Amino acid sequence: MDPIFFPELRTFEFWIGDWEDVEPMVNRYFPLIKSAPNLSTVHIGVTEDTKDRDISFLRDAYGWKQVDSHLCRLAEGAMGTVTLVLDVVLNHELSDRKDVFGTLTGSQFLSEFSKAGGLFRFE
Amino acid sequence: MRDLKSCSLTSRAWSCRSQRYILESITIPSFDHLLKWASEIDPTSGISSYVRTVTLCDNLTWRFSSDILAQLEQHLTAFDRLECLNLEGFHLHSGIQHSELIPKWFGRFRNTLKTLSLGSCSLSPNAFQSVLHLFPLLDDVSINDDCHAVINTEGDRMLKRYPGGVPRFRGSLVTGIGTLQEYLPCLLMVPLQFHRLVCVFNEDGHQIVSTCAPTLQILNLEGGPTPSSLVSRSYRG
What is the ipTM of this complex? Predict the structure, then answer.
């Protein structure tokens, strides 16, 4: 598919469902973040269908690492603040929000993103 | 005496508030209910201006025949501040007589209507364009999952020419997972400049997202049926 350019996009929201959603997300959603130079909020919803292994898979995906570096670049060059919002619905497979947060964000990214002026919000 | 007076004042104030609250939203659950509706509200009393939301529903039987229009005229004509219109079970295409939104009647809301929700409706590209043309202040359009697109005749497909052209729609569109594929022809034929889009991001979603990308400010992607080619077998576990 051809890349799409979003010159005006400020807020991008998507959610992680079960494992079937994860790989298409890496292939399709992440490139969207890269082609939105004025993005200020990325809202990721983790639904009740998400399992721990989905989160790990996402974290390890190559596309996610690209998103990390792109978010850091965005935060660095943005006029305002770039906010990453993680909205987690807990279920029996995901009993600890902090685990999801830790796995998805990773300490290295967390520190780089914060250093670049980015903000995290955890809901 | 003073207590009685203050009680009376409070009562009057609450009467006004309760009327405002009760009349804020009106639902007419069926065609039949509309025909039998004998309202005691005096349209000249100003109470009807409290109405902000009207829901007209039926099970795919809505027709704007003369008796229906007469009833709508009688009861709803004074709803001059209507902001939200929910249509459920409407045919909005040329395949069925009296099935299109009548500009003469619905046009009265053109300066107030901001939200339109379509549920269990059938809608042609032309009707979709007419709706956008009819309500230039629309800020939010929802096409629910149980709607379906209809192109029965060339008239459904051929977009009408309006003096001054079709106003570009700048509001927000919410489409359900099941509707996008069917509505794609409708949506792609109308000039769209949505600032907010909520849709599923499969192949169809990709097209609508591409079309709207230049003006989008908020994009909310929902999960959807995943093409099998994109599913990793090794991950299936």
Answer: 0.84
